[in-house]
């Protein structure tokens, strides 16, 4: 098989791909990204699991003294910043049920978006905010390891900048059509392509 030049000046190089190349091609193309996709899924499972102990029937721990209530009390007793403690005491505690639901819904949203790889960049952005919030509150609580919270923040930063949902995620199927629609001038597609 020889290289030849077409009449229009385009050089044609014959394909040297074998059947084995076709079978392993997908994996080879994904090889640099599959660990990132796997970490994204596991990080999503972490958030999903953590959302499960925010129990509305217990008023998010207020009745039993456990769960979210316990950890917010720890943050109040061992504040990283006094202004944050004041926020917890003066805003969160008086509106406990609302903030309990917001915590549950936010952590569930993070888990679902990252497990499915659907709107991964948006899920990662929300995870960064939630992880920063948790870090600010919990950093001075005795026996907490600060590096845990550094990782809790940095993993979604990685997902945000790399578009990690394009590996083992629904975003992989949405990216191409959104890019084409954005190129045709659709404003909503321009925004949506950033989310995947």
Overall description:
- The protein has 196 residues and is an all-alpha fold.
- The protein has a domain at 36-165.
- The protein is built from nine helices and two strands; from the N terminus they run ββααααααααα.
- The protein has helices spanning 19-30, 34-51, 67-77, 82-92, 96-116, 120-138, 146-162, 171-183, 187-195, and strands at residues 4-5, 11-12.
- Helix 2 (34-51) runs antiparallel to helix 5 (96-116) and helix 8 runs antiparallel to helix 9.
- The longest helix has 21 residues, at 96-116.
- The mean pLDDT is 88.
Write out key terms for the chains shown.
2% strand; 196 residues; elongated; mainly alpha; 67% helix; two-stranded antiparallel sheet
What is the gist of this entry?
With 196 residues, the chain is an all-alpha fold. Helix content is 67%, strand content 2%.
Number of helices: 9
The fraction of residues assigned to DSSP E strands is under 5%
H-E order: EEHHHHHHHHH
Tell me, what's the shape?
A: elongated
Return the structural class: mainly alpha
Helix content: 55-70%
Annotation, overall tally of beta strands: 2
Give the low-pLDDT segments: none
| Quaternary structure of the protein | single chain
Placed side by side, the strands forming the largest sheet appear as 1-2
The average pLDDT score comes to 88
N-C termini distance: 41 Å
The main sheet comes to: 2 strands, antiparallel
C-alpha Rg (nearest Å) = 23 Å
């Amino acid at each position: 098989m020889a290289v030849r030049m077409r009449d229009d000046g385009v050089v044609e190089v014959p394909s040297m791909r074998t059947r084995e190349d076709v079978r392993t091609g997908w994996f080879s193309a994904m090889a640099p990204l599959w660990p990132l996709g796997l970490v994204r899924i596991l990080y999503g499972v972490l958030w999903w699991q953590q959302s499960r102990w925010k129990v509305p029937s217990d008023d998010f721990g207020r009745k039993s003294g456990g769960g979210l209530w316990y950890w917010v009390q720890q943050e109040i007793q061992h504040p990283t910043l006094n202004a944050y403690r004041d926020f917890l005491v003066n805003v969160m505690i008086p509106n406990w049920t609302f903030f309990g639901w917001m915590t549950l819904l936010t952590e569930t949203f993070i888990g679902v978006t990252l497990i499915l790889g659907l709107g991964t960049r948006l899920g990662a952005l929300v995870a960064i905010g939630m992880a920063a919030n948790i870090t600010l509150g919990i950093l001075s609580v005795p026996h907490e390891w600060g590096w845990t919270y550094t990782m809790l923040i940095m993993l979604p930063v990685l997902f945000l900048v790399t578009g990690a949902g394009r590996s083992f995620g629904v975003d992989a199927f949405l990216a191409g059509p959104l890019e084409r629609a954005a190129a045709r001038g659709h404003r909503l597609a321009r925004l949506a392509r950033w989310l995947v």
